[in-house]
Amino acid sequence: MPDDNIITILFLSLELRKPILVEGPPGTGKTELAKAIARALGSDFFRVQCYEGITFEQMVGEWNYQKQLLHLEMSRLKETDQDVFGEEFFIKRPLLQSFINHKPSVMLIDEIDKADEEVESFLLQALGEKEITVNDLGTFTLKNDVLVVLTSNSQRILLDETRDRCLFLYIDYPTAEREVEIVKSLVPDAPHELVERVVGLIQRIRKLDLVKIPSIRASVDWVRTLLVTQDGQDIGDESLERTVRVVLKTEEDREKVETRIFK
């Protein structure tokens, strides 16, 4: 079950029609939260995965130039006029798809901190005005209730305007007790003692100065690995040390863990 803070923010977002900005370390379930909200509400789910260099146009859509050129060539051969700036020539991307969808939707803008400030500003404008304009095609107005979730790993400082417009939610790594519950829900066949031991080690590993801190998913992967390799039985230090590589992503991290946790 989600904690009270998440439930409160979700309730306020629905009532006030405000986006939710979710921050926290990588691997704490920010993206999964948006998916879970969509499932709980029975809403359609759309996702824009941001990356360095992404443009607002790539979030909205782009013209199918090959199709346009083909139709222009056919028009030339038939000696007819052909309008190649209709919707059938435009490839709609998730942001625009969520706007024109006639059903309630959850729109995830994932890792907005990887996009530049100009893209962030255009996005806020579109969400604020509830419309998107495409050159040569026209303006699309929001046709449904869209709950917008933005996630950030704090790679860069977001615009003050973004924080002003959003409800803020911070998700940290869970407590050991909560993480055991999460892992058990995802791997129900795992012995409780095994899950507790893995989570306990993961919690200790996270306190080290690592390049890549293990996520909640790492705990799940480790438990599943032990179930496959050891049938979940007689899990000793040797088995744990041999399989810990599943949750470590660099050689430097592996050396630190083997030295400080298993020695």
Automatic annotation (TrEMBL):
**Taxonomically, which superkingdom?**
Archaea
Q: Which Pfam families match?
A: AAA_5
| Annotated AAA+ ATPase domain residues | 16-172
Which InterPro entries does the annotation name? AAA+_ATPase, ATPase_dyneun-rel_AAA, CbbQ/NirQ/NorQ/GpvN, P-loop_NTPase
A molecular function GO annotation: ATP binding
Protein name as it appears in the record: AAA family ATPase
Q: Which organism is it from?
A: Methanobacterium subterraneum
